[in-house]
Amino acid sequence: MVEIVRRKRKPPILTPSTIPCLRQLPTINVTWGCTLGCVYCYIQGYANYPGRDRIVLYENTAELVREELARKRKKPRRVYFSSSSDAFQNAPEVQDVSLETMRVLLEAGVEVAFLTKGIVGERFIELFARTPHLTFAQVGITTLQDSLSAKIEPNAASPSQRLSGIASLTGVGVSVAARLDPLIPGVTDTTESLVTLLSALRRAGIGDAAASYLFLRPQFASRAPGLEAITGLCRNVDAWPYQRFLDGCGGGRMISTSERRSRFELLQTLGKEAGIAISACRCKNPELTSVGCGIAGPPPRNERASEEQALLPFVDPARDQGIARK
Ligand code: SF4
Q1: Does 179 contact ligand 1 (Cβ within 6 A)?
Q2: Is the pLDDT reported for residue 76 higher than 80?
Q3: I need a surface site. Which of 1, 11, 46, 286 has the fewest CB within 10 A?
Q4: Helical ranges in the chain per DSSP H
């Protein structure tokens, strides 16, 4: 049972994230903490992480957004949910605040982009069906195995619920991409597992997916409750080299560049066979790609790159050796 502590948040709320890919966009977290409890969730490494059994709900989020939009001379083009929580957490109180906040934005003509591993319920589908051209969804999914999913993302939607969420969203005209993140090497990225997952995603209407590998930030490795579950699944995490990510993203321990390269190449080949274009997350793989993975939804038409993402040909061997283990 998760305790929900209600708080009023202070303005301003429509402020951009510090994450490079989201820097241009205001990002909204309606909670601090997250009920979905993914074992790898990096927020567990923060000193003020509220714990797995407690979240803070910012109950006045929609009200603040409404006031700020009314005051602003130039409205943001798009708002992203959520950089360190999930707008569709399995708590009705959280979903009420998310729904109302998204409604305020969409009714003001502001695009809503979100990434979720939760259940996108009927109320949300009805809302998005009114303005599908303003809504951009990403659904996080790395496995179709219920038992594995329950182990790594204990309170998230089951794989079949996520697939039916994708089908409901595409059914009302929303643009949906999949996010295979974080892949766990040797666990969720085996050929068999990926082939099954990609063909199910294609059947649900997915044509684009972004991917990235599990990484452990130093603070996570020192205090996260989920670490034990990860080391139980993936026994060689201690040997992963420390890698620096894109400027502004810090770094963490992760499989080496050369290993990621060959695994991404396999994934892209399998994606092509299934009819899904796969991009690697640039923030965590700057040595492998210079093109973004569309975490915040597709760029406006006039800013879209004409080429598909291809892995960069050059690999810096210094990165493979790891930079200053922490
Ligand atoms: S859904 Fe995202 S924010 Fe929530 S626990 Fe999982 S990784 Fe963390």
Answers
A1: no
A2: yes
A3: 1
A4: 61-71, 92-107, 122-130, 146-152, 159-171, 191-203, 218-223, 227-233, 257-274, 317-320
Is residue 137 domain-resident? yes
Instruction: Please count the structural domains in the chain.
Output: 1
Task: List, for residues 21-64, the tens digit of each pLDDT value.
Answer: 777 789 999 999 999 999 999 999 898 999 989 999 999 999 99
Question: Is residue 78 in a domain?
Answer: yes
Nearest atom in ligand 1 to 84's CA = 3
Residue 307 maps to which CATH number?
A: 3.80.30.30
3-class SS at 54? strand
User: What digits encode the pLDDT tens for the residues 105-129?
Assistant: 999 999 999 999 999 999 999 999 9
Provide the 3-class DSSP secondary structure of residue 213. strand
The number of the ligand 1 atom at minimal distance from the alpha carbon of 85 is: 3
**Whether residue 117 has its Cβ less than 6 Å from ligand 1:** yes
- What rounded mean pLDDT belongs to the chain? 90
Q: Is the Cα dihedral 308, 314, 317, 322 positive or negative?
A: negative
Residue 234 neighbours by CB under 8 Å, 6+ apart: 184, 185, 186, 187, 214
Ligand 1 geometric centre to CA of 71 (Å): 32
- Given a cut of 90, whether residue 91 has pLDDT beyond it is yes
Can you give the residue range of the structural domain that contains 249? 3-320
pLDDT in tens, 208-230: 999 999 999 988 888 888 999 99
Q: Which ligand 1 atom is at minimum distance from the Cα of 117?
A: 1
Please report whether residue 325 resides in a domain: no
Instruction: Please state, in angstroms and rounded to a whole number, the distance separating the CA atoms of residues 296 and 281.
Output: 12
Is 99 contained in some domain?
yes
Q: From residue 52, how far is each of 87, 160, 177, 220 by CA, in Å?
A: 17, 25, 28, 14
Contact between 248 and 315 (Cβ < 8 Å): no
